[in-house]
Amino acid sequence: MYEIKGLNEECGVFGIWNHPESARLTYMGLLSLQHRGQEGAGIVSSNGSRLQGEKGLGLLSEAITDVELNHLTDDQHAIGHVRYATSGNKGIENIQPFLYHFYDMSVGVCHNGNLINAQSLRRNLEKDGAIFHSSSDTEVIMHLIRRSKADHFEDALKESLNIIKGGFTVALLTKDALYGAVDPNAIRPLAVGRMQNGAYVIASETCAIDVLGAEFIQDIHAGEYVVINDEGIRVESYTQETTTAISAMEYIYFARPDSTISGKNVHAVRKESGKKLAQESPALNADMVIGVPNSSLSAATGFAEASNLPYEMGLVKNQYVARTFIQPTQELREQGVRDKLSAVKDIVHDKNIVLVDDSIVRGTTSKRIVKMLKDAGANEVHVRIASPEFMFPSFYGIDVSTSAELISANKSPEEIKEYIGADSLSYLSVEGLIDAIGLNIDVPYKGLCVESFTGDYPAGLYDYEENYYANLSPRQKDYLKANKQFFDREGNLNVKSI
Ligand code: AMP
């Protein structure tokens, strides 16, 4: 079932309550979250009695023009979304927020992440007569809310949040309130801030709170939701069955370096990962350290500092080209790497280089960059990855949902080193990563979700389970077998324990 790509979304959500410029501020907030999704964006706003919305495909500036934004100007409350979509799922019908007008109320809703039981929920809903207009999980959430027998919207929301599984944040707007909810593991983040005039904002990342000059108030934790209305702010739990497991990939790749997740600044964490990586896998004989712009620059500075090597700008990124993953096909992705990066020949020529990247997923980026540096005259290129081997798919909303596309699911570091043409290759250990992030919460993996590195899925697998096990590669199986917690008493892979 998880071959049905396109349901995985790593997006950005934003919401604001009670500001005369709510739509414009939402636009600004979304702009600062643009790195989380570039294929579509939307805003739903309210003047306290009716809800209206604008949305479109592409970057925020393409999706919502000034004219459209002007339609929303007199409204005081708003939610917004930037969308990351994968192939086959790029139509306007999937762009959020969705705006529903019912006989008794209107609701705007958007989400970030992936619901791992959405397929089965949807099937059951359809069998029961529900009609879907999009392939987005967001619609499932709205159907659940409307089918609830609860008297109040908030109770219906709570009920629905207990039915959906996975890694997600949800933002909802009604004429009476703004809601923001976080999955029972807090895999995907949501933060709350307050503006000087008393307006509240919620956002996937704190950078969207900072950009408005608002003050950070708190993170919404595992299994919690926040309600903001004219009476103020309230944070409630919708379940007691929670275990904090914040996505390590937020720190490694997704979030902006100026964001802080659960008290840990993303740049500082990445820098620390680079330092740990240098301690674990030093690159002897190197002349300089180079980072792959932009997400690996922090880690590269940490690596350089810890190894007493100069940090150099050996690669330059064209800042006007969007992230490579955003290209839906492998061919376009490969082209994308060339358009996006170039080597600084005079800097790298004849030098032994440590190349730091945040992760290797398919191996496309590293292979291209090693070749690019060698073509520019680099002598040796030692690749250091500031995260562990990405061996297992993720179903919690980071668009890496099949084992087949993961180079580390099938190849050893030695084989990957050959494949990408590097002179050496090492990864940060799982322990090194956990230490570098330093959440130190007294739960498995110290409060992190590291499923892609360990095959340990804190929110379970649900609709993806059958295919996941059917498609495990020999290398993945060997890894799981070496980790006893995945064995049942008979010594078989223990499905239930994961
Ligand atoms: P690849 O070229 O497939 O090996 O992907 C690795 C590159 O993509 C790295 O340079 C990362 O910065 C970036 N990356 C890693 N994980 C993701 C993800 N889930 N979505 C988009 N980009 C990613």
TrEMBL record:
Catalysed reactions, as listed in the record: 5-phospho-beta-D-ribosylamine + L-glutamate + diphosphate = 5-phospho-alpha-D-ribose 1-diphosphate + L-glutamine + H2O
Pathway stated in the Swiss-Prot or TrEMBL entry: Purine metabolism; IMP biosynthesis via de novo pathway; N(1)-(5-phospho-D-ribosyl)glycinamide from 5-phospho-alpha-D-ribose 1-diphosphate: step 1/2
PROSITE patterns referenced in this protein's UniProt entry, alphabetically: GATASE_TYPE_2 (PS51278)
Textual note on the cofactor: Binds 1 Mg(2+) ion per subunit.
Top-rank lineage group of the source organism: Bacteria
Domain Glutamine amidotransferase type-2: 11-231
Ligand binding (Mg(2+)): 295, 357-358
Keywords, ordered alphabetically: Glutamine amidotransferase, Glycosyltransferase, Magnesium, Metal-binding, Purine biosynthesis, Transferase
Molecular function, one GO term: amidophosphoribosyltransferase activity
Record bears the keyword Glycosyltransferase: yes
Cofactor names: Mg(2+)
Function comment: Catalyzes the formation of phosphoribosylamine from phosphoribosylpyrophosphate (PRPP) and glutamine.
Family to which this protein belongs: In the C-terminal section; belongs to the purine/pyrimidine phosphoribosyltransferase family.
Name of protein: Amidophosphoribosyltransferase
Phylogenetic placement of the source organism: Bacteria, Bacillati, Bacillota, Bacilli, Bacillales
